[in-house]
Design a protein that fits this description.
Spore Coat Polysaccharide Biosynthesis Protein SpsA, Chain A, UDP N-Acetylglucosamine Acyltransferase, domain 1, 2 domains, six-stranded mixed beta sheet, globular, transferase, Bifunctiontional_GlmU_bac-type, UDP-N-acetylglucosamine diphosphorylase/glucosamine-1-phosphate N-acetyltransferase, GlmU-like
């Protein structure tokens, strides 16, 4: 990528990825705990895509309570909408942008230069407005994460593997279809599995494990240090983020990382945040019995909005858990830190820090939640630091108005 990494943008060596206020709310609950650009779609997070394509470092302009964990670097910088999923043409679009211009698509700000002392996007005032010729791929809704995932796996696969050679599969009992579309990083272990890349590429990250009897179809990404358990059935357009374990049946779903769905049960057209755990035989419905379009909780309107989709499963925020045999209805949203359990179908919108299920909810008190979260993180050999604890405490307070418990769902 030597020629492509010549970064002409006024000699900038860094990019500032900003949260668009008009977009961020529509990506809750995932943006409670991260900037928009920290969302994983495909193999990489949005920020990692920009880093790879430009060869530049990235920083974030986000909510105040997140800014310490996701800092902004000092100096003049090119500010780019964090919801923009870049491709090979993105560089050529940005190269012609000057410091006195602001790049828009319609009414959406796409990119502009910001000085070191400018703290908000009011910096675009007085600049010449330049409209993009073609529509950028913007992550506007939570369901876009799984909608765009197959295409993003393909783009990221090319970005990560160009000019590199895959490690070999030495196991004689594993079967690879279209091996030219399969890339395996060093340290991956594959035993008696079937990898079918006829329909799209398969990326297997470093120090991963695919156990006996696993059936995998591309496009698929297994990120570093993750495991596919014995007998798993994984359909295309699925990403398993780093340090995760999956089993059972998955289809067109994205797991951000550090989460487990290790047992039988179906997960389809769904997005799972970090530090989540799905109990054995958890199942998600991704299609209504009457085949009508799915409505999903929309934080920006405080009610359900029509997705326009026939297939839409579960949106689960970071640090959420569910017990064995949990059944999630079509188009369910679970907030940060919730613990769902019990018989029947729980309500379709479960606020952050909820405790319970179909028979009713109470509040998962923050000290009790924190005790669990610390234990979960410690199992990965990590520590839930003070900075992260304060973010979660802030979210607990921010989300309290949602925890007005009703007898109906």
């Amino acid at each position: 990528m030597d020629s492509g990494r010549l970064f002409y943008f006024c000699h900038m060596d860094s990019i500032l990825l900003f949260d668009d206020p008009a977009i961020r709310g529509s990506l809750l609950p995932f943006t409670f705990t991260r900037p928009v650009a920290d969302i994983r779609v495909g193999i990489l997070k949005i920020s990692e895509k920009w880093q790879k394509i430009t060869g530049s470092s990235v920083s974030f302009l986000t909510q105040d309570y997140l800014q310490k964990k996701f800092p902004r670097k000092s100096g003049n910088t090119l500010a780019i909408n964090g919801a923009w999923l870049p491709d090979s043409a993105s560089l050529s679009v940005l190269k012609s942008l000057s410091s006195d211009q602001a790049l828009y698509f319609g009414k959406t700000l796409i990119a502009t230069y910001m000085g070191e002392t400018e703290r908000n996007l009011g910096a675009v005032k007085g600049k010449e407005i330049v409209q993009m010729d073609s529509e950028p791929t913007l992550l506007l809704k939570t369901w876009n994460i799984f909608q765009f995932n197959g295409a993003e796996i393909r783009k990221d696969f090319d970005l990560l593997t160009q000019g590199r050679k895959s490690a070999n599969v030495t196991d004689p009992h594993s079967k690879l279809y279209s091996p030219e579309n399969i890339f395996i990083e060093e340290g991956a272990v594959i035993r008696a599995a079937v990898l079918n890349a006829d329909g799209g590429p398969i990326y297997i990250g470093k120090d991963t494990e695919i156990q006996e009897g696993a059936l995998i179809r591309g496009p698929f990404a297994l990120c570093d240090n993750s495991t596919v358990n014995m007998g798993a059935k994984i359909k295309g357009d699925t990403t398993v983020g780093p340090h995760s374990k999956v089993g059972g049946e998955l289809s067109n779903s994205v797991i951000f990382g550090y989460s487990n769905k290790g047992h039988e049960g179906f997960l389809g057209n769904s997005v799972i945040g970090e530090w989540c755990n799905l109990g054995a035989d958890t199942n998600t419905s991704n299609l209504k019995n009457n085949y009508s379009q799915v409505k999903l909780w929309d934080y920006t309107v405080g009610n359900y909005s029509n997705t326009g989709l026939q297939f839409c499963g579960l949106m689960m925020g970071d640090h959420a858990k569910c017990g064995i045999n949990t059944m999630f209805n079509t188009g369910t949203v679970v907030g940060i830190g919730s613990n769902v359990f019990g018989p029947g179908f729980p309500r379709k919108f479960i606020p952050s820090f909820a405790w319970g299920g179909e028979e009713g909810f109470s509040t998962f008190l923050f000290p009790k939640f924190l005790e669990t979260a610390k234990a979960v993180v410690a199992r990965r050999g990590l520590e839930l630091n003070t900075e992260e604890q304060e973010i979660l405490r802030t979210i607990f307070e921010m989300s309290k108005n949602y925890r007005i418990w009703e007898t109906t769902s």
